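Structural prep section.
Before we set up the soaks we want a predicted structure of the protein with DGJ in place, mainly to decide which crystallisation condition to try first. Input record follows.
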Amino acid sequence: MAIRYDEEQRTFHLQGKSTSYVMQLERDGYLTHQYWGRKIRQFRNSNRQQYIDRSFSPNPYHRDRTFTLDALPQEYPQYGNSDFRKPAYQIQLENGSTVTDLRYKSHRIFSGKPKLAGLPATYAGQESAETLEITMEDDLLQLEVVLLYTIFSQYDVVARSVQFCNNGKQKLKLLQAASASVDFHRSDFDMLTMPGAWGKERHLERRALQAGIQSTESTRGASSHQQHPFIALMEKHATEEQGEVFGFHLVYSGNFLAQAEVDQFATTRVTMGINPFDFTWVLEPNETFQTPEAVLVYSAVGLGGISQTLHGFYQQHLVRGEYRDKERPILINNWEATYFDFDADKIEGIAKAGSELGIELFVLDDGWFKKRNSDSTSLGDWFVDKTKLPNGLEDLAKRVNELGMQFGLWFEPEMVSVDSDLYREHPDWCLHVPDRYRTESRDQLVLDFSRQDVRQEIIKRVADILESAPITYVKWDMNRHLSEVGSSLLPHERQRETAHRHILGVYEVMDEITSRFPNVLFESCSGGGGRHDPGILYYMPQAWTSDNTDAVERLKIQYGTSLLYPISSMGSHVSDVPNHQVHRFTSLEMRGDVAMAGNLGYELDLTKLTSEEKEIVKQQITSYKKIRRLVQFGRFYRLKSPFEGNETAWMFVDEDKTEAFICYYRVLAEPAAPLASLRMKGLDGAKDYRIIGTSEIYSGDELEYSGIRIPTDLVGDFVSYTWHLKAE
Ligand code: DGJ
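Run finished without errors. Recording the tokens verbatim:
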């Protein structure tokens, strides 16, 4: 790892583990992007930019028709002075104009990585990372734009963000402030995005880049189920195992925009950051604006390489707290078992059945607080419902503890029900705009977390509950997107700051609560995986991957999610049949095998299981405890994609390659089906592996190159099979 500035060439060369990222200063301080890809020992710019006269591309230098910003590969492009592609930022001056001109002013290189004020971001110690700070300046405005780049010794990532510092005398208005922009010299890529919907998160979609702009974005006030703040450019021949892939992932949970623009000269500009749609930010003199961080990740070995890098990187440099490296408990959640219809005895009954099966944590989901008998009331009134729980939470938690289980609780702190005491007392505490109808969703409104008084009250209410009982786990839900986005405390010129200020407020509340309760395991949730993003992962080490618990649907959801996120972040439960989301019947075995490929949990009424089913569940839990560390923290390899066919497979290998767990799933039975086999990955070719529970021993190279046969006695729809290997 090194960052070098070459005086003579005026290049900045950032060398990560096996990647290089190079910028160069052009004449008069324009900062250009030169290279990003495989590591280069000594960059001398063999493939340097050529300057030619381009028709209809204006020239900032009088009489030099060969120089135009319109064809220059730029590092942080501006608007208004000859580049007609999309800029990375745009600023409005007091005179109404929107043209700025940034030139290089200075730079510094230092070890470690600075924190980003008020925002989640990747972190690093002094030895494991190095940072380059390039200060660009518009001297007319005395505006400094500081470009931050951090590289990491063990990973092929560049973490980028930008600070806008208004050192001048006039008030500036940021209209756009991207976190990163990269100009590629070529456009022969495919673009990968991760669209979805509620119950269908993070599916994978790949399409060829076309001339013009293609984008993915959220305007919903959250990163969302519908789009994910990630895009990748892939070489045409890139697959799971091979080819170059350039990924962009935003550490942010609000409105975002990620776009790729293919221009007239077949170059590609990728821009990522806060969505400029309905965003402005007033920057008074002496104020600074910090953008969220974008993680740029490179792989020369396909999508598998992207996942290997991000899993390790997020695990080591984003996830924090006591649970970062700890095995996660197997839980039973009462949501699909009872919905709102429970009392303490019913809960204790389910917990007892769980404890007899080896489950370690009971999670009391929605419905435990004042008058919350349906999803239309009481959010914000975080006080125990004494009708359902007459002896309170402490008593219930203790009863659960006596069964040898931990106790966890559900909250939805960012919301208020219209039918709640909180809303009746403070009708102006929600996001809204004057004189307009407040659009409800699930009969609730969004609290205005840009307001400090609102944040303080919610922090107090949640903290009081957490202090009132032995609660060691919190499921932090968020069940609607933002409408009528406005805040009653912001002046008119700052109304378009509301969405971002709200997210900053959400982060502040999460920071406060998670810091005050460091021993609590927090699981984020947003109607399932609507906010499974790197911003939230910084505060909460795991997320509820999807409300869709159907084993077949989960194959695509978990496969897609695994592209970016460590397995230890993925909550995955066995639920009842017919499944509550898609009404499908799948076997308990397959439901278990799918859920075991994440943080295993159960979400059904265990008291209603037959003794045969209880035996199967007991067996699942016993097996999972043996492979839990391997699954949650091992290396993860995708073997067969549910997006490409009827079969899915993936596997987990420990760091020393002495143990592996392989899962195979087939959705539908086929007539005249081919005899299926599976080739493994990540094993040690020189080692021999025993298949646990059998006398079969095979070498790692044989299992990788020749593969293993799928048993022919797997018959019917929705079947699965697992192998547990140990090196001899
Ligand atoms: C949405 C979550 O995703 C569910 O698991 C459950 O907690 C409900 N909210 C409760 O309202």
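Observations: The CA atoms of residues 59 and 67 lie 6 Å apart.
Flagged for discussion at group meeting.
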